[in-house]
Structure formats: C-alpha cells, structure tokens
Amino acid sequence: MTQSIAHEDFFNNLMALLDETFDNTHGIYLDKDTSLFRTLETVSAEEASIPVGGKCASLAAQVAHVTFYMEVLERYVVHHDSSRVDWGEVWRTVEKVTPEEWIASKNKLQAAYQRISNLFRENPVWNDDSIGGSLAIVVHTAYHLGEIRQALCVLKK
User: Fold this and answer.
1) Rounded to a whole number, what is the largest CA-CA distance in the chain?
2) Where are the domains of the chain?
3) Which CATH code fits 7-24+31-155?
4) What is the pLDDT of residues 106-124, one digit of tens each?
5) Quick check: helix, strand or coil at residue 60?
6) How far apart are CA 73 and CA 151, in angstroms?
7) I need a surface site. Which of 32, 54, 77, 112 has the fewest CB within 10 A?
C-alpha cells in the first residue's frame, strides 16, 4: 500500500526549516539567534576575509558559495538550465572583501533566499526533483552555517 504525505504538511515543514536555517530560529534544530542571517550580522568584512585553518576558505567564500548553490538551483528550475557548473570557482576566487563588498554579498544572499522561497511557495507540483532540491537547499545551507559558526568560534577567541 502506498502512503503519501499531504502537500500542506510537507510544505509547512519545508518553509519552517528554511526560515529556521536562514532567518528566524523556531527551536527545530538551531539555538536562538543562530540562523544564517543572524549569524552574519555579527561578522565584519575583516572577519569574513580571514581564511579559517590551513585549507579552509574565508567566510566570504562560504556565503558566496551558498548564494551560488541557490542560483544554480533556481536556473535549473526556472530556465531548465542544466549546463555544466564550475563549483570550484567561488573557492578559487572569493577571498578578502571590503565592507561594501561584504554588505553586497549578504544582500545578494538574502535576495537569492527570497527568490528561492517564492519559487517554493509558487510550486504547484511537488515531485522527486522539487522535494530533493528543496531539502538540498536546507541541508546544504545548514552544513555551511555550521562551518561558519565553527569558524567564528575560532576567530572570536
């Protein structure tokens, strides 16, 4: 017997997870005020420019990578663009940022998040691709949020 999940149940949980990951913690899996946007509010451009550890990228690169990931998903969903993507470009090119560049990078991340959220809200059909893609955004961003928060523990000692 096949069981299905009600669209509304999946959607409401997805949006709560997205909101928690990016903006407002609800206590699902993050501590209060530890979402990505809240965390980045505490990071200066100087801190964002410091490579963490011997082989790790800067926090600015982490943010640029999360934004890039969402933009790739958006191009795939909206424009059916499955062209080859250079996943390493951000890691090779984003290092130090000026205060203006850091603000612009955070704004670009917020804009990408808003577009992805709207894309999910307007999605009429949830199938393997859309469910997988939406959950990948949550999981991928949560991973990088963990890296950013861990790096901040080291940087702010």
Assistant:
1) 58
2) 7-24+31-155
3) 1.20.120.450
4) 999 999 999 999 999 999 8
5) helix
6) 26
7) 54
